[in-house]
């Protein structure tokens, strides 16, 4: 089993087996098992009746939250024994009830000794594996709004203020809970600087850190703006080779015209190769040493290597790594005290393109900072000029209608008969920060839509957005 468990990473499925219902009722529910090497991970087998047959689904969790599902088939129970198969591991589990809440058994895999694995009943797993809200699987479940709890971190909370706000919240939240937009973990709505809706799903709470993925890129742009405001960067047209004298190859003819503004707008011309960056032991060096395949400024190419270069520019101009710079000049003034930027750190450099973990409320503070032209709680953290420049269209992207500024997406969302301008930070899996200046609205979502439609919630927001226009 130890060599088989990691292989399930990309597989999803559901399968059925047969048994008589009277003999198997005691096996239904969620059964928890360990990961063979990582204590932060666990797997679950969910056994349930489908008519006269048993069905089983498998799940992985990480740090107590859903990570992915896997297939289980050939379920057979004959009290007190049960068997099932994990096809992606090519292993069969055989076990016997050892009390109401324990199955004692193990996995038999070809060419390996029997691997002893106890399964422990854990019905609480339902709340973070299959139910968006406790009880939401019941047919009579209805969403009930509650005003967000008062914040201790300089963001005011309030009850929604109009019938339109209420309709937006009830309409969209009912769809989210029903699974219309995949697996969302959080939804926050700010209007006129008040947090008026805050909901968490699948066991998440407001205190839990959540990966924000490529929203980290937009935050990196704010850090460059702060550095420019401080005079550490004088000119966005300054070529890269002047920032990185330790890389003399950047002064070659095909590289020397690449400037900071090209990096900010994803038009540097470097050959995009995310695989190379992910596999490299030095992302910054790998990003700077790539070939140039397009004339700088001529072509938008979405590329995390550009954002890693921003981290290098921060280091070479301020003497501070990106996370240290952010702590002093962004996180502390925003009262962001809980975060994790250590994932994928290399040589002290945090991964600038997509590894920051924040609480959803703190991601909302970033949105309020942008909405208020760089001001937060009476402090100007980044200049109004930088916000206007970075959040205005600088180039068109490969997606029709989705334009790009300085590491911010610039678009319009159509809702009913009106089009609303939007500043957008976009992270894989439904990590989104929507800023609607004309509505004075900020929306935060986090999610685990890595297996499905990452961008589905955009359609839901667009459908109901006009209701907030009052």
Keywords:
470 residues, alpha+beta, Lipocalin, Beta-lactamase, 2 domains, globular, disordered N terminus
Q: What does it look like?
A:
Helices cover 24% and strands 28% of the residues. 42% of the residues are buried. The longest helix is centred in the middle third of the chain and has 15 residues. It is globular and about 75 Å long. It contains 13 helices and 24 strands. It folds into 2 domains: 125 residues, Lipocalin; 259 residues, DD-peptidase/beta-lactamase superfamily (Beta-lactamase). The N terminus is likely disordered.
* Number of helical stretches of at least 4 residues: 13
Structural class of the helices, strands and pairings? alpha+beta
Q: Tell me the Rg in angstroms.
A: 25 Å
| Average predicted confidence as pLDDT | 93
Just give the CATH class of the largest domain.
Alpha Beta
Strand percentage:
25-35%
Helix proportion:
10-25%
CATH topology term of the largest domain: Beta-lactamase
- Total domains, how many? 2
Query: What characteristic shape results from the CA principal axes?
Result: globular
- The CATH architecture of the largest domain would be 3-Layer(aba) Sandwich
Give the name of the CATH superfamily of the largest domain.
Answer: DD-peptidase/beta-lactamase superfamily
Task: Extract low-pLDDT stretches.
Answer: 1-23
Total beta strands: 24
Intertermini distance: 59 Å
Sheet of most strands = 10 strands, antiparallel
């Amino acid at each position: 089993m130890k060599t088989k468990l990691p292989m399930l990473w990309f597989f999803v499925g559901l399968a059925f087996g047969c048994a008589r219902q009277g003999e198997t009722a005691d096996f239904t529910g969620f059964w928890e098992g360990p990961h063979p090497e990582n204590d932060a991970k666990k797997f679950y087998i969910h056994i349930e009746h489908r008519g006269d047959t048993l069905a089983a689904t498998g799940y992985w969790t990480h740090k107590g939250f859903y990570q992915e599902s896997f297939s289980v088939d050939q379920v057979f129970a004959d009290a007190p024994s049960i068997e099932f198969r994990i096809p992606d591991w090519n292993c069969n589990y055989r076990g016997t009830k050892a009390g109401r809440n324990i199955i004692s058994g193990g996995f038999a895999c070809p060419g390996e000794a029997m691997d002893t694995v106890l399964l422990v009943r854990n019905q609480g797993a339902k709340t973070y594996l299959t139910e968006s809200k406790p009880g939401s699987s019941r047919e009579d479940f209805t969403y009930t709004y509650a005003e967000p709890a008062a914040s201790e971190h300089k963001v005011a909370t309030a009850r929604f203020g109009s019938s339109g706000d209420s309709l937006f919240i009830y309409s969209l939240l009912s769809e989210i809970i029903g699974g219309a937009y995949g697996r969302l973990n959080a939804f926050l709505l700010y209007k006129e600087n008040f947090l008026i809706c805050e909901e968490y799903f699948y066991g998440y709470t407001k205190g839990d850190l959540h990966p924000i993925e490529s929203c980290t890129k937009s935050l990196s742009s704010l850090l460059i703006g702060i550095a420019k405001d401080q005079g550490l960067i004088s000119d966005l047209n300054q070529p890269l080779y002047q920032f990185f004298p330790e890389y003399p190859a950047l002064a070659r003819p095909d590289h020397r015209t690449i400037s900071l503004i090209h990096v900010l707008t994803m038009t540097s011309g470097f050959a995009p190769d995310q695989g190379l960056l992910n596999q490299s032991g030095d992302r910054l060096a790998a990003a700077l040493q790539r070939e140039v395949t397009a004339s700088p400024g001529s072509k938008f190419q979405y590329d995390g290597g550009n954002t890693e270069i921003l981290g290098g520019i921060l280091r070479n101009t301020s003497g501070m790594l990106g996370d240290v710079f952010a702590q002093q000049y962004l996180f502390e003034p925003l009262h962001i005290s809980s975060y994790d930027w250590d994932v994928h750190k290399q040589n002290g450099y945090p991964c600038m393109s997509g590894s920051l973990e924040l609480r959803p409320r703190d991601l909302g503070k970033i949105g309020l900072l942008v909405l208020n032209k760089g001001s937060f709680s009476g402090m100007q953290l980044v200049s109004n000029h930088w916000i206007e420049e970075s959040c205005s269209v600088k180039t068109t992207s490969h997606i029709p209608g989705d334009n790009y500024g300085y590491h911010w997406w610039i678009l319009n969302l159509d809702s009913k008969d009106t089009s609303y301008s939007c500043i957008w930070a976009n992270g894989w899996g439904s990590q989104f920060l929507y800023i609607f200046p004309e509505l004075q609205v900020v929306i935060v979502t986090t999610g685990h839509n890595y297996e499905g439609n990452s961008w589905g919630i955009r359609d839901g927001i667009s459908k109901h957005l006009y209701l907030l226009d009052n």
